[in-house]
Amino acid sequence: MSKCIRVQIGESSGILCMSETDFKCPKCGCPYHEEDYYSQLYKSKRGLIYKSCKGCKTKLGITTDIRGDVRVWLKEEEKNDVK
Q1: Is residue 37 domain-resident?
Q2: Is residue 83 one of the residues assigned to a domain?
Q3: Which of 7, 37, 60, 72 has its CA 20 to 30 A from that of 23?
Q4: Per-residue pLDDT, 4
Q5: Which residues does 37 contact at the CB level (< 8 Å), separation at least 6?
Q6: Is 74 left (phi over 0), alpha (psi -120 to 50) or beta?
């Protein structure tokens, strides 16, 4: 969950946002850190990647939301409504 705060430095002000970049596999709980996926996600033209879990070998979908938080799901749970 991201956290944003307003900062004031002298006469200048701005917003500082911190986002959550670590996550656990939704199936087995295997921990992931930013260095495990970030370079692959950064290079992705679609803004989403699929990666096999280090623990249970399940295919994970990984992306970030508008606030910068990482979102993870099991690929097998994706809806394929292609007609």
Answers
A1: yes
A2: no
A3: 7
A4: 86
A5: 49, 51, 62
A6: beta
The secondary structure of residue 49, as a DSSP letter, is E
State the burial class of residue 60 (Cβ atoms within 10 Å of its Cβ: 0-12, 13-18, 19+).
buried
Is residue 3 one of the residues assigned to a domain?
A: no
Token pair in block for residue 8: 């004031």
pTM over the 0.85 mark: no
Q: Would you state the pLDDT for residue 80?
A: 67
Nearest to 20 by CA among 71, 73, 70: 70
Tell me how many domains the chain contains. Answer: 1
Residue whose token pair is 């690929």: 75
15 found inside a domain: no
**pLDDT given for residue 79 in this prediction:** 78
Instruction: Read off the amino acid at residue 26.
Output: P
